[in-house]
Amino acid sequence: MWQTIKLKTRKVTCFQTGCVLFNPALSSCRSRLNASREVAPVSLPNCRLIKGIETGSEDIDILPNGLAFISSGLKYPGIKSFAPDKPGEIFLMDLNEDNPRAVELRISRGFDLASFNPHGISTYIDRDDTVYLFVVNHPHQKSTVELFKFVEDDNSLVHLKTIRHDLLTSVNDVVAMGPDSFYATNDHYFSDFLLMFLEMFLGLTWSNVVYYSPKEVKEVASGFYSANGINISPDRKYIYIADVLDHNVYVMEKHANWSLTHVKTLQLDTLVDNLSVDPHTGDIWIGCHPNGMKLFYYDPENLPASEVLRIQNILSEQPVVTRVYSDNGSVLQGSSVASIYQGKLLIGTVFHRALYCHL
Ligand SMILES: [Ca+2]
Ligand SMILES: [Ca+2]
Predict the structure, then answer these.
(1) Which end of the chain has the smaller Cβ count within 10 Å, N or C?
(2) Which ranges of the sequence are coiled-coil (predicted)?
(3) Distance 159 CA to ligand 2 centre (A)
(4) 10-residue mean pLDDT series, the chain (359 residues)
(5) 121 labelled as ligand-binding?
(6) CATH code for residues 33-358
(7) Known catalytic residue at 119
(8) Domain boundaries, given as residue ranges, for the chain
């Protein structure tokens, strides 16, 4: 008579008759999670798992010179972690090498490494060639954005500042606009775990996108079920936003005052996580979750799958969507990002491993 939904260590129980009242919400929640979707595999011939990355590679950002930053070790409410007590890390991979390895970047003293819980990342190259790395961090279940300077000579990150703001409540990803400014997605309105769950279950569209600079912070887009990945077109005119629970990608025009206006929405049949943009072609590469139920309710007997989509010509009348890779979880579980550099593809995951492929 009792239905039990087990949420990590907490349990939400409801009497079955009571649940009948929630049936419409339950059924639309199931459809937002794409709960009945199974994927047909699409294999790539030249792929290998990356040694040393075992506990996630949620986001990947590749510099124009082929250096890839990988955020690893995310602990996110309700989502599996293979090392819940281990702090997160940032790895670097040089994709120009024949056989690139992932190297953990050292982080400068004065930064609280023990609570480092990195999520979305974004790089910015300044006029003087300084490389800044913005990292969404969740120390003690909070949201901050950490700003680092990358020092290539000794594979290190120098921590410059921690950015906190009342509008940065539940940050998922950022895209850098300058050395200290960015757009950020809040994937939920609430930051408390149970309220986040309710927000998703009830299908509230209270998630938003915020512009941050030291001078001005403001909401620039709203009405998302759950805004997740965010990135920018190569001409820097358009911002792309993934709504993971609405299975679509928004194209927004960016204006001089940093406001955004809606241009179009591309509907897909998968939970879209992080967005990467090929700087040469403008193609959007997306790490996707074909079935969100398997991601949120981890079952080793029924693993979360992986799927990579490429979108060509998103601004045209007929964008081309290609399923480049798909796996039922036997190789790669819970893909969240796919990023490209000169025929090499990196596929990252929320809490599992990472794949390196030659296309
Ligand atoms: Ca990102
Ligand atoms: Ca994400």
Answers:
(1) N
(2) none
(3) 22
(4) 36 42 82 92 96 98 98 95 96 97 96 98 98 98 97 97 98 98 97 91 95 98 98 98 98 98 97 98 98 95 97 97 98 98 98 97
(5) yes
(6) 2.120.10.30
(7) yes
(8) 33-358
